[in-house]
Amino acid sequence: MTTTRASRPRRKRAGQYHHGDLRRALIEQALRVIESTGAEALTLRGVGAALGVSRTALYRHFADKEALLAAVASEGFRLLRAALVEGWEQNGRGTAGFEAMGAAYLRFAIGHPAHYRVMFGRFVESGVRDPGLEVESESAFGALVDALTTLQRDGLARADDALLQARFVWAVTHGIAMLVIDGQLRGGDEDAAALNRYAAERLRQALSAEPAPASPR
Amino acid sequence: MTTTRASRPRRKRAGQYHHGDLRRALIEQALRVIESTGAEALTLRGVGAALGVSRTALYRHFADKEALLAAVASEGFRLLRAALVEGWEQNGRGTAGFEAMGAAYLRFAIGHPAHYRVMFGRFVESGVRDPGLEVESESAFGALVDALTTLQRDGLARADDALLQARFVWAVTHGIAMLVIDGQLRGGDEDAAALNRYAAERLRQALSAEPAPASPR
DNA sequence: ACCTGAACACCGTTCAAGT
DNA sequence: ACCTGAACACCGTTCAAGT
């Protein structure tokens, strides 16, 4: 029971705890578990064990499990926004940029299905949320509103209420993402790609700035 | 320790168990809990207690909790299909019927959000499912495909691949339902109604049988 | 401040046993 | 066949205690 440091089962620096930034490490470990085995399989005990801390250390940084998931969701919206903005800006901020945005959205959702589900599925209740979550979510949506506003200004999209138009576009894209993620398209990647193409065409027609052909009276 | 029947803690008929159809009672009780407090709050012990049976009685009828949820989901698709078909048939099997179908879909999802989430959320894994689930799900989707096929035949919708077209329409409607259910439209009912109206207009334009106006060269 | 270990009140599921 | 009670191996969370 002397302080011979060779016999300690786990090496720990004296006077310093495990992490410089345990909060950050907890979010990253949670995300790692979620991406590899799904959010349902996430246990706080497992996260603590993987990081070499006690299973209650987490409560110094998060009120409860939901607060940790809210932080993970918030991180997701930040990444999603970055992907959307990149697609838009790297492709000319016009029609091509808009379609690149849609492709980036689906690539994110399909590439990180478990993360995407934490962002939208009801893992995070409507009650007390991460203060940043609402902000990040609004910010990602804002990128879409901005793009549509620009398209409208340049005569490339119908001059409707931009917020309403953005919600419609979001619903279409979100709906496709969810169907693909949930495996409702039994053809797999092939069918998903075909649906993406078809949806892009129909959306172009639906948002076309040109007046709809006169009804046959 | 004699068999005085007055001292028994719970009255039970001799020679008869609790239910004529425990399986059915379990599904209905599970649905009751889900609709009132959400699927996350569903516990097998609670279901058993509410029905006055032991918490393991359930395993005579379902392999596990997921199998019970699959049965609940299957029931949901049956109800959804009935609502869709009614909207279509009671409104003339034309454009009006098609829009009534969409309205019925959203009414079902928004009226039974927890049930809807069990049908689509990842409560039921892609692995072993209720044999009826896939069938019921396909059947509900089939109602949509049939309606679109009819519209195409009558020149009321673009003559695209009906399956692909149906998937697109489904994605739009599913996307709206999910955004509303998940509380992403902060305006509440007002905003949801406005989005529904706008989406119906855009969808009409997107599926219009008339050729799109010639592009400006 | 930050972390620990023990304890509490739950879960789903298994299993030997009863009728 | 259908149901039961005890037991097992988990959970998230709380709390007094350590440094």
What is the terminal separation of chain A in angstroms? 95 Å
Spell out the helices and strands of chain A N to C: HHHHHHHH
Low-confidence stretches of chain A: 1-16
Rg of chain A, rounded, reads: 22 Å
What is the CATH superfamily label of the largest domain in chain A? Tetracycline Repressor, domain 2
Number of domains of chain A: 2
CATH class of the largest domain in chain A: Mainly Alpha
Number of distinct beta strands of chain A? 0
Query: CATH topology of the largest domain in chain A, what is it called?
Result: Tetracycline Repressor, domain 2
Please tally the helical runs of chain A, counting DSSP H or I stretches of 4 or more residues.
Answer: 8
- Mean pLDDT across residues of chain A: 86
Task: Summarize the largest interface: chains and residue counts.
Answer: A-B, 41 and 41 residues
CATH architecture of the largest domain in chain A, by name, is Orthogonal Bundle
Task: Characterize the main sheet of chain A.
Answer: none
Q: In terms of quaternary structure, what is this? A: homodimer
Task: Assess the beta-strand content of chain A as a share of residues.
Answer: under 5%
The helix content of chain A is 55-70%
Shape label of chain A = elongated
Category from helices, strands and their pairing of chain A: mainly alpha
